[in-house]
Design brief:
Layout (H helix, E strand, L loop, with lengths): L1 H15 L13 E3 L5 E11 L2 E12 L2 E7 L5 E8 L2 E6 L4 E4 L2 H9 L8 H5 L2 E3 L5 E2 L5 E3 L2 E7 L5 E7 L3 E11 L15
Parallel strand pairs: 1-8
Antiparallel strand pairs: 2-13, 3-4, 4-5, 5-6, 6-7, 9-10, 10-11, 11-12, 12-13
C-alpha cells in the first residue's frame, strides 16, 4: 500500500539520520503533566527488518492538536498524521483519509504494527507519559510502552535527535529546527476534518 510506504518512509528517515557527535544526552525523564506547544522541522528515518526509508517532516503541536506532515526532499507532502480530541487520522498523497480513535488502532490498521504517535510530542519534550509504567536505564534511556527512547540535545537544550526502538522497528527524528514559542493558532481540530 502507498500509505505503508509513506509511513515506512517516515520512520526510516527518522532512524537513518545521523546523530551529531558530542551532543548532550537527555538527563532524566520527568512526568508529563502537560506539554507546551511547539513546531519543528527535520528529517526522519524508519528501519524495519534491515530495510530503511527516509523523509522530511514538519510537525506542530498546538492547542492539543498534533500534526505531522511527511515530505519529500523537494518539499511535497506525501502524507499527514493528525491527532486531536476526536481521534487520529491519516491523509495520503491522493487525499484519502483514514480514521481511528487512537494512533495505535490506526497504525495497526494501516501498517500491521503500532507506532506510538500519541506519545511523540511528550518524548520529544524530554518527558515520560504520566501514570504509565516506565523504566529508566542506566545510560539515561527511557523504556515505556515496549519502546526504548533516547534523546540527544542541541546547544540550546532542545531535542536534536529522538530515537525510538522496539523489537520490530526503529524510528529516528533529527530536528533541524524546533520552536517552543510558535505563533498562536485558533485550530482546535485536525484541518483534514473540514
Amino acid at each position: 500500500m502507498k500509505f505503508k510506504l509513506y509511513v515506512s518512509t517516515l520512520a526510516a528517515l527518522v532512524l537513518a539520520a545521523c546523530a551529531q557527535p558530542n551532543m548532550p544526552q537527555q538527563n532524566g525523564w520527568l512526568q508529563a503533566d502537560n506539554t507546551s506547544d511547539f513546531t519543528a522541522e527535520g528529517r526522519l528515518a524508519v528501519k524495519m527488518d534491515g530495510k530503511g526509508s527516509y523523509a522530511n517532516f514538519d510537525w506542530a503541536y498546538q492547542n492539543q492538536v498534533q500534526t505531522i506532515n511527511v515530505n519529500t526532499p523537494l518539499g511535497n507532502t506525501v502524507g499527514q498524521l493528525c491527532q486531536d480530541k476526536q481521534g487520529v487520522l491519516a491523509v495520503d498523497n491522493k487525499g484519502q483519509i483514514y480514521h481511528a480513535q487512537t494512533a495505535a488502532q490506526l497504525s495497526r490498521q494501516l501498517l500491521g504494527y503500532e507506532l506510538p504517535v500519541q506519545y511523540l510530542h511528550i518524548w520529544a519534550n524530554g518527558k515520560r507519559v504520566a501514570d504509565a509504567p516506565y523504566q529508566l536505564l542506566s545510560d539515561g534511556r527511557l523504556q515505556q510502552f515496549d519502546w526504548t527512547i533516547s534523546r540527544t540535545l542541541n546547544q540550546a537544550g532542545q531535542a536534536r535527535v529522538l530515537l525510538l526502538e522496539s523489537t520490530k522497528l526503529s524510528v529516528r527524528l533529527v530536528f533541524d529546527e524546533m520552536n517552543t514559542q510558535p505563533e498562536p493558532t485558533e485550530q482546535q481540530q485536525c484541518s483534514a476534518r473540514g
